[in-house]
Backbone:
């Protein structure tokens, strides 16, 4: 577990400590105090989780489209590699580039240019711009694109993290949409207060820890197929899993083959399965897994049951 508080108050069971670094545009990148602290922590046998504050997203000094700003933030990451990583690589757990709300619209740096980009994005994505949730989805895409651009500056030897606070997104399906793992598959993620379960790390008031092992997965279709989803199926399934206290985790279509380890059951909305998804689901069945239809309609694969049968068998 990574302790997220003052290092001299480390509780039992923690093996790593968070150290913050100021990497914002106005910073002189003088991290001597942090290096001294890291040295002392390392000597006591603890590892280090570096939290690099870049001002994302509401504390950026310039518009998010400013290329020089992006390059300057990238220089802060490169400076970390040269000045910190070179000394503490063996004791480093990872490097956090963003800590904040899952709903990026709450702190997104809107401008006339961004408003125009939003309307164009809605047109290209065939999304209703008057729907309040559309801005949250746009900010998800624009924000994670920016994070991925920053990740280009992170050397392969370093594990980049993002810490996402999901407490202000209480609708399970909306939370599921904002958590789309396709957007952030270059990062290790830690979630706080999420109403849906994932394979990501857990983040709470004490620190960051690994998620529990579960044998039930909830199929997340490719983003292109979201509109074909029966939202009611997902809402009913979330409710049933919660009522029966069945632990589960999201598993994206794109990562189904690599992430089905440990899963015995895969809950699927029949209306959201793409052709590629169908082939991957057949592979899951061939590996011994059981597919559960959320609405009871037959999917047409081996080892299949409906949601009612699954709930009864899980009691």
Residues:
């Amino acid at each position: 577990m990574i302790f997220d508080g003052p290092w001299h108050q480390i509780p039992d069971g923690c093996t790593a400590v968070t150290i913050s670094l100021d990497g914002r545009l106005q910073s002189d990148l003088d991290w001597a105090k942090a290096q001294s602290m890291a040295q002392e922590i390392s000597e006591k046998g603890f590892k280090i989780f570096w939290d690099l504050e870049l001002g994302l997203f509401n504390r950026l000094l310039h518009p998010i489209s400013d290329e020089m700003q992006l390059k300057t933030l990238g220089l802060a990451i490169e400076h970390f590699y040269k000045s910190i990583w070179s000394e503490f690589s063996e004791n480093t757990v990872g490097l956090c580039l963003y800590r904040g709300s899952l709903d990026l619209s709450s702190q997104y740096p809107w401008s006339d240019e961004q408003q125009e980009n939003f309307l164009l994005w809605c047109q290209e994505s065939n999304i209703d711009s008057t729907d309040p949730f559309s801005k949250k989805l746009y900010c998800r895409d624009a924000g994670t694109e920016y994070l991925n651009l920053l990740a280009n500056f992170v050397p392969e030897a370093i594990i980049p993290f993002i810490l996402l606070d999901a407490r202000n997104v209480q609708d399970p399906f909306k939370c599921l949409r904002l958590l789309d793992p396709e957007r952030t598959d270059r990062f290790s993620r830690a979630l706080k207060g999420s109403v849906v379960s994932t394979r990501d790390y857990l983040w709470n008031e004490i620190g960051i820890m690994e998620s529990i092992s579960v044998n039930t997965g909830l199929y997340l279709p490719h983003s292109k197929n979201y509109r074909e989803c029966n939202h009611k199926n997902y809402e009913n399934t979330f409710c049933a899993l919660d009522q029966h206290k069945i632990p589960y985790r999201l598993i994206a279509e794109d990562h189904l083959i690599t992430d089905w380890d440990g899963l015995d059951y895969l809950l699927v909305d029949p209306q959201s399965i793409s052709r590629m998804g169908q082939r991957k689901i057949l592979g899951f069945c061939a590996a011994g897994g059981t597919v559960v239809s959320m609405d009871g309609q037959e999917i047409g694969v081996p080892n299949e049951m409906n949601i009612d049968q699954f709930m009864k068998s899980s009691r």
Summary: The mean pLDDT is 92. Residues 232 and 295 are 9 Å apart (CA to CA). The two ends are 31 Å apart (CA to CA). The chain has nine helices and 13 strands.
